[in-house]
Amino acid sequence: MERCAAAHLAVHLNLAGMFLNNAVAHREAETRPTSLAFNDSGTLMVSGPTTSANESIHAIEPDGGISSFYTGLGRPQGMAFDVDGNLYVAASLHGRRGVVKITPLREASLAISGSGIVGLAFLPGEDAAVVTRDTVYHIGLDIAGRLLR
Fold first, then answer.
1. What is the pLDDT of residues 3-24, one digit of tens each?
2. At 88, which CATH number?
3. 92-109, pLDDT tens digit by residue?
4. Pairing of strands 35-38, 44-47
5. What does pTM read for this prediction?
6. Which residues contact residue 15 at a Cβ distance below 8 angstroms, ignoring those fewer than 6 apart?
7. Which long-range contacts (CB under 8 A, 24 or more apart) does 1-10 make?
8. Is residue 148 part of a domain?
9. Domain housing 86
10. How many domains is the chain partitioned into structurally?
11. What is the DSSP string of 61-114?
């Protein structure tokens, strides 16, 4: 990793930690970042799930600005972007568990339905690894994931 990229990541992770520590102080609940994903513009998406059915994905911009990207998920966990900028999150949406697709316009829909899904990662060839509490599945999704190089 280049030195600038490493420093950029360190700043983002520090901001993510400060943001979520502040959220903990205000909500009086223990929240720790469990999932991180960068989009193409360098914005860091962060989730820190609790048992609430109305959690948020927070966005930390490269300049340090922090906002709520999407609110209304239950226990958002593993996250990954596709090449079109859609964010995929292992979470519940309207009481249904699976992988939620959130478009850049912040419209959410259930892309994969399944209980116990806690994470995902895109693989080469439009495939994905979808993770439950005790199993990793390799599935074809016909979605070109944004792969880190």
1. 444 444 444 455 455 555 554 4
2. 2.120.10.30
3. 999 999 999 999 999 999
4. antiparallel
5. 0.78
6. 44, 60, 64, 66
7. 8/42, 8/62
8. no
9. 3-140
10. 1
11. -TTS-EEEEEEEEES---EEEBTTS-EEEEEEETTEEEEEEE-TT--EEEEEE-
